[in-house]
Amino acid sequence: QVQLVESGGGLVQAGGSLRISCAASGRILSIVTMAWYRQAPGKQRELVATITSSSSTNYADSVKGRFTISRDNAKNTVHLQMNSLKPEDTAVYYCNAAGVTTSYSGFNSWGQGTQVTISS
After folding, report:
1. What per-residue confidence (pLDDT) applies to 67?
2. What is the rounded CA–CA span in Å between residue 116 and residue 94?
3. Alpha-carbon dihedral sign for residues 21, 114, 24, 44
């Protein structure tokens, strides 16, 4: 019922910047929380950052001060600006959204992921 599509991944040198985005579509009444997760090869998926509908944010310690999450409620989009990138930021980044559909049921949806690779 709710689809998420990420964009903007790619290959960047260490120290560089990258911005990834995610657009939600479907039978959306409201999105309460949007988030970015990442999964590196051989590791578990981990939370990177979250943002609520009132723009309250939370970050993993490993990205604080380097990454910024933002959202456009009118467009149901979320962005992750990543600066001072490190090789250890290499991972597949997944968008997540949780909210309510137009049929008043809850949803918790995931995107398919976008690859971010940081070269040293």
Report:
1. 98
2. 10
3. negative
